Every structure is written in C-alpha cells, then in structure tokens.
Amino acid sequence: FPQIDLQLQSEDGGDTSGYIPNGEWDLKGVPGTRQSIQYTCCPEVYVDVTFKIHLRRRTLYYFSNLIMPCVLISSMALVGFTLPPDSGEKLTLGVTILLSLTVFLNIVTGNIPETSEAVPLISTYFNCIMFMVASSVVLTVVVLNYHHRSPTTHTVPDWVRTVLLQWLPWILRMQRPRKKITRKTIALSNKMKELDLKERSSKSLLANVLDIDDDFRQVRALSSTPTSSHNG
C-alpha cells in the first residue's frame, strides 16, 4: 500500500473558515500536531495528525442573570445588621436571602454538567456566598439573644466580669473613673470576692444549723407533751 504523508496546512491548526458563531460557546482555536510513529512490527513510518478543539463558554448570560442578582441579594445581608432588633424583621430578612441563594444555586446546578472530578468556579462562588449569608443569620440570632436579655432573667458570669472589666482594660492600658486598674487591684478584688463567697457560705451554713436546731427543739417539745398529760 502507498504511504500517506499528512501535512498541516498552517501552524494554527485546523481550518475554521466554515465555523458558525454560537451564542453559548466561543471557539478559541483548533490547534493540531503532526506525529510520526514507527512500530517495532513494521519498517514503515506511520504519520497521524491530532486536532484539539478549544471551546470557551460565553459569560454574559451567567453574569447578567445569575452573578449580578446574587451580588445584589447577598449585599442585603449587610443591610440586615442595620435593622434595629425591636423591628422583628432581622432574622426574617436573613432567612429569605438564604432561601433566594438556594434557588439560584439550584438553577446553576441544572445548567452545568454533573461531574465529581472538579468543582465549577460559579458553584464555588455561590457556596461561598451562601456560607457568608448563613454566618450572618447565625450572628443575627446571637445579637437578638443578647438584646432580649435583662438583669432579671440573666446575670453576667464572674469570669466575664473578670476578663472584660479587669484584665482587658489592664492589657489595653485603660483606666476606670476614680479607680486605677493594676495587677494588685485585680488580685485584691479577686481575694475580696473569695472572702465574700466564704462569708456567704458560712452564713448559709449557720442558718441551716439554726433551722435544724429549731426543728429538733420542736420535735422534743411535741414528744414531751403527751407524757406530761398522761402523768396528770
């Protein structure tokens, strides 16, 4: 059989003169490579030409219909922090934004191919935005929880008082009015608190002992009353 010598017409690769432009894909190029292979079984040299088609998805549709609405909706999460807690719409706004982003993510997953080899960039973007909005919802819940607390329902723990009112001002070199904050004053206040706790515990113990003594006396008085009446 006569050998066929394949040659590339140009260095750019294949001929794209008959290509019809597409609204979704953009043809970047069709590069080709010429290879000459000689197998061990045959003395002839076999020539082949390999073409690779490079396509790029057009981004205008996704930018105008998915990315821009997502950016506008996610920016509303920042507006939610400016709402007063008494309005009652802070948490509702955050949950509504999260549901809207979930709908957009479902639209994106319906338009991209299903594969586990790589994560598309637009899916990564939507996942990051949803994580940010979910974090804002969690912070909104925390803010509302602290806002609706009152001195009658909650008390500040001792370790929070120690950290925020003593050690943190001392680290930041802050001073309270008419009271200096040093390591000695912090240690002295902690000792005073310990003594106060011991005094309260001793008072409560003494009160319990007195109550037990009173109960014991009442029991003795009740037990002695029937005996005296029987003797009479």
Could you characterize the architecture of this molecule?
The chain has 232 residues and is mainly alpha-helical. It contains 5 helices and 4 strands. The strands form 2 sheets. It has a two-stranded antiparallel sheet. A two-stranded antiparallel ribbon has the order 2-3. It is elongated, with a radius of gyration of 40 Å. The protein starts with 24 loop residues before the first strand and ends with a helix.
Number of helices: 5
State the low-pLDDT regions, or none.
Answer: 227-232
Radius of gyration, taken over Cα atoms and rounded to an integer in Å: 40 Å
Mean pLDDT: 77
The string of secondary-structure elements, in order, is: EEEEHHHHH
Helix/strand-derived category reads mainly alpha
Q: Numbering strands along the chain, what is their spatial order in the largest sheet? A: 1-4
How many beta-strand elements?
4
Between the first and last Cα atoms, what is the distance in angstroms?
Answer: 145 Å
Shape assignment: elongated
What kind of sheet is the major sheet?
2 strands, antiparallel
